[in-house]
């Protein structure tokens, strides 16, 4: 159970949302944003939990003073995209908290995407092109939150179309237009987080605007707490502000300086095993999944889940952590359950194979050890045997002569008798 400085308690009903928030923040930090849609009844704490991360987001590095949050290695805004690298280095860099901005239902398109700065253009002394960036361009490399997105999709078609452009590709884009002036297009790379109450008018986002619903990588249900102890904890939490949601972002995993100097693709941080690639492809084909975004969401969700749990490779456990949320809003409940059951069976089969392989390896090692022990024992026996042979060969030549009545034996017969005695001694040693 975990508190934030603003009060939410992590419990069974909202832990999946927290897991997806962590994945989304991490992937956004690396430049591969993931969009989250939290559904649940009113009062389940969706909005509170989503907003609670603002004080604990990682810092990002940008060109100093850039309102568009240009990455020093990949400048994209009108002011910096054409500047030489040496000039950007002269401007300098700075670290700022990852942006977290909200779009309200009453916002105008110009406020959301931005507008042309007519004052700069009409300046008689020094006319110049200028843009007044809106909420979306300012949130580049960060997160935008939209509450009650199902209602916004029903009442604000213009804002809905803007979100579709932003979420349609990665990175997305916004277009700023003014009558009589050339259109300005800006790339934006950010995650959209949204919350909705599907039981209230106008209904679930999937029924209101299915196209927008499909743009979300993950949809997650949020429930009220079911244990009285958790409810008591929520009530007491007003007096316990000292515990914060620092585990939302693992600072050891997400050091702000960890990736700041590399220009390489962050998708190469973890490789997706070939068998999992084939499995995802077969899911898409065999279960007739309409949107390829589902498979992409599962892929990257698994990658970042593995990274957040400090693993170097991805396995089916990571896939199972995100697959339900990637398919929930895209396929029927029956299909989703079939996919999860299939993956669980494959995962269990892999565990059995691993156990059998480990057992076979143990048996092999045991056999090898027994063979080595047997060989060592044989070596010891022959070593003792050769030692006795050397002792007999090194006996003094002047022994006491004993006369017998037996007939004299040849040298060859004497040698054969002595060899037989030595071999019998060796067999007795065994």
TrEMBL record:
SUPFAM superfamilies: P-loop containing nucleoside triphosphate hydrolases. Pfam families: AAA_lid_2 (PF17863). Transmembrane segments: none annotated. This is Magnesium chelatase. Residues 32-226 form the AAA+ ATPase domain. It comes from Natranaerobius trueperi. Residues 421-430 have a biased composition (Basic and acidic residues). SMART domains: AAA. Residues 396-430 are annotated as: Disordered.
């Amino acid at each position: 159970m975990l508190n934030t400085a603003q009060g939410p308690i992590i419990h069974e009903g909202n832990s999946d949302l927290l897991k997806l928030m962590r994945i989304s923040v991490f992937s956004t930090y690396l430049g591969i944003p993931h969009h989250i849609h939290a559904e649940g009844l009113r009062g389940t704490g969706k909005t509170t939990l989503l907003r609670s991360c603002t004080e604990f987001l990682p810092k990002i590095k940008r060109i100093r003073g850039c309102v568009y949050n240009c990455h020093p290695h990949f400048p994209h805004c009108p002011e910096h995209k054409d500047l030489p690298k040496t000039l950007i280095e002269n401007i300098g860099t700075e670290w700022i908290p990852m942006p977290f901005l909200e779009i309200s239902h009453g916002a105008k398109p110009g406020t959301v995407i931005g507008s042309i700065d007519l004052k700069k253009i009409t300046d008689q002394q020094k006319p110049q092109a200028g843009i007044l960036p809106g909420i979306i361009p300012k949130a580049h490399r960060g997160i935008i939150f939209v509450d009650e997105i199902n209602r916004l999709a029903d009442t604000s078609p213009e804002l809905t179309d803007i979100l579709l452009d932003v979420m349609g590709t990665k990175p997305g884009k916004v277009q700023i237009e003014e009558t009589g002036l050339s259109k300005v297009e800006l790339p934006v790379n950010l995650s959209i987080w949204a919350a909705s109450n599907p039981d209230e008018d106008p209904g679930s986002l999937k029924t209101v605007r299915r196209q927008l619903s499909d743009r979300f990588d993950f949809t997650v249900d949020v429930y009220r707490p079911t244990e009285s102890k958790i409810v008591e904890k929520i009530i007491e939490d007003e007096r316990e502000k000292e515990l914060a949601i620092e585990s939302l972002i693992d600072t050891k995993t997400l050091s702000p300086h960890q990736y700041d100097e590399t220009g390489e693709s962050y998708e190469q941080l973890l490789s997706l095993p070939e068998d999992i690639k084939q499995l995802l492809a077969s899911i898409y084909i065999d279960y007739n999944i309409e949107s390829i975004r589902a498979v992409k969401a599962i892929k990257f969700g698994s990658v970042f889940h593995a990274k957040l749990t400090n693993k170097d490779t991805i396995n089916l456990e990571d896939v199972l952590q995100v697959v339900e949320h990637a398919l929930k809003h895209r396929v029927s409940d029956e299909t989703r359950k079939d996919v999860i059951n299939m993956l669980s069976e494959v995962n269990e089969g892999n565990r059995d194979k691993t156990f059998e392989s480990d057992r076979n390896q143990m048996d092999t090692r045991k056999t090898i050890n027994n063979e080595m022990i047997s060989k060592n024992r044989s070596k010891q026996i022959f070593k003792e045997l050769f030692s006795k042979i050397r002792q007999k060969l090194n006996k003094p030549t002047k022994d006491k002569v004993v006369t017998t009545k037996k007939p004299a034996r040849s040298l060859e017969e004497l040698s054969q008798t002595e060899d037989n005695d030595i071999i019998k001694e060796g067999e007795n040693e065994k």
